[in-house]
Amino acid sequence: MSNASVNAAVKSVVLVHGGFVDGSGWEGVHNLLKKDGYEVIVAQNPTTSLADDVAVTKRAIASASGDVILVGHSYGGVVITESGTDPKVAGLVYITAFAPDRGESVATLISNPQPGDPVPPILPPVDGFLFLDRSKFADSFAADVRPDLAAFMGNSQRPWGIPALEGKVSEPAWRTKPSWYLVATEDKMIPPAAQRAMAGRAEAVKTEAAGSHAIYVSNPGPVADLIKHAAANARKS
């Protein structure tokens, strides 16, 4: 195999959404990547359990025409950490996302908030599923998204299953795959300091941009740029 083919950019991307939302939020990122010639697959995970979401994500990876850059937002970071060991995954991109280690879950990572950290407005579970308080959704999740869209996101929340919140990673893909991380500096769901700590632990290439937890919706440019950087460099790592 020639060096040129070894170092060729990865041209397929799988986008994985987080909790409370679905894959439609990736539209802006999807369109920017498609414009530049990437094959883009958006996983529509049920967010019922980590195992279910990993299974859906692995089917998305399998459907890609070649090796993929696997991208996760928020809880989607847990999903890509668990599913990213798939041999077709060339690199991981975390967008203001959880990057758990072996045996960790969202539940363990959020169990000891630091003084002064914002507290996500998660309501008590109903029938085993979680929602954010609709009246506080925009401020906590999507403060820089245009108001009508932020309201729609709050009103169209996908139920987040407690087994997804508590799903533990078995073998973190970032230990063996090159990783990149975008810190959203105005995030009120995952504190930026926690994002930086997880990025550092994963030895991810880190970049930062001003934005809310929904930066992938409000400002897809830096998100798409980081994904393209990862695609160009994953096979060189």
Automatic annotation (TrEMBL):
Domain AB hydrolase-1: 13-225
Pfam families: Abhydrolase_6 (PF12697)
TM spans (from-to): none
Domain of life: Bacteria
PANTHER family: AB HYDROLASE-1 DOMAIN-CONTAINING PROTEIN-RELATED, ESTERASE_LIPASE_THIOESTERASE DOMAIN-CONTAINING PROTEIN
Protein name: Pimeloyl-ACP methyl ester carboxylesterase
Taxonomy of the source species: Bacteria, Pseudomonadati, Pseudomonadota, Alphaproteobacteria, Hyphomicrobiales
